[in-house]
Amino acid sequence: MNLKDQLSAKQAELVELKSAIEAGDAEAIEKADAIATECESLKESIAKAEKAASMIASLGNSEQKSAKADTTAKSLGEFAAKSLDFAGMRAGYAKSAGTAYGFKAATSAHTAPVIEQLDRRVIDGIRRTEIRGLFGAETISGNSLKYFVLGAAEGAPAVTAENAQKPQFHIPYTPKTASLEKVAGWYYETDELIEDAEFLKSSIDARGLYELDKAIETELMTVLLATSGVQTLAPAGSAIAADDVFKAIMNVKAASDYEADAIIINPTDYQTIRLAKDGGTTGQYYGGGCFYGPYGNGAVATQPGLWGLNTIVSNAVATGTVLVGAFKQGASVITKANEGARVEVVMGDHDDRTSNRVTVIVEERLALAVRVPAAFVKIA
Asked: Is-contact 371 331, C-beta < 8 A?
């Protein structure tokens, strides 16, 4: 008989003694007192047992959580190393193993662990997302997105006198369609890749995805700079100067009423601005020299931002071109819901086997929707 059953039996005995106790039977009262003491002891034992059971259950949950955490990949390379099944490739009856869009292992029958994504702009902590992270991020269920680009307002609301005609105003719009495009590439790797999880992880993250992200950022800049309605500004001198960048910041505000939040500049142009000096006899660097900050004040900053804005120094824009914009509000990177980058490891023809190599394919589908072209200024 378990503790709860014992308690129920003792409580039943007390009920049977009720009449005798009410009649003042001394023997019944003494017996009831002993039974009540036993009941209290049983209740304490039951409470201790329930507490122990709860602790055991919580330990089990912690173990489950730890096991789950252990299977969570922090990068696509790690996910591939943990989840892809290369048994068929080793045996020679399968030619490839890859992740499906959304990071589910296509070659595994079970549900594979999902890469932890706290922010959709950043697929994982290793990927290059300097420029991509500047834009807004949206997902769609289809393969294209129709959106509208607003033009300059014609007319405006105004103070209207009693019985006077209210002024008309109109905001024209132009429909645009952003279709998902695939950015992809492949490279050869030694077939030892499929035997060594750490090798696979580093190859995908440090080589495959790094090069894919460089291509994606270049494509984003190509699309944006070619968008109709993006403002242009010619530099005042023979080279782009800090004054030109500030003028572009103000042009963003004047044309769109948005605040510029970032600058993208080529390393050569950034170097020209960064190494600029005053015309004094001491030849002080405006941005600080190699040992001190500007004019000997504060610590040196290797790549300080221009005019306090987030400044990305990148080859994604050509020399002689600087892009200033309100990136978060002006444009969005569009991806398909539950999709991300995809990686596939392929064992191809006879030459691959005799050369001890595999082909690694990396790809991603996305589009750029420039909703407010006037929120960007191209200095060129």
From this structure: yes
DSSP letter for each residue of 120-154:
TT-SSTTS--TTGGGSEEEEESSSEEEEEEE---B
End-to-end C-alpha distance for the chain, whole angstroms: 89
pLDDT in tens, 230-250: 999 999 988 999 999 999 999
Cα within 13 Å of Cα(53), Cβ side: 6
Q: Which CATH class is domain 88-379?
A: alpha beta
Length of the chain: 380
Kindly state the tokens that stand for 181.
Answer: 């495009």
- Global pTM reads 0.68
pLDDT digits (tens, 9 = 90+) for 248-305: 999 999 999 999 999 999 999 999 999 988 876 677 888 888 877 766 677 777 788 9
Ramachandran bin of 304, using left for φ above 0, alpha for ψ from -120 to 50, beta for the remaining angles = beta
Return the domain boundaries, the chain.
3-70, 88-379
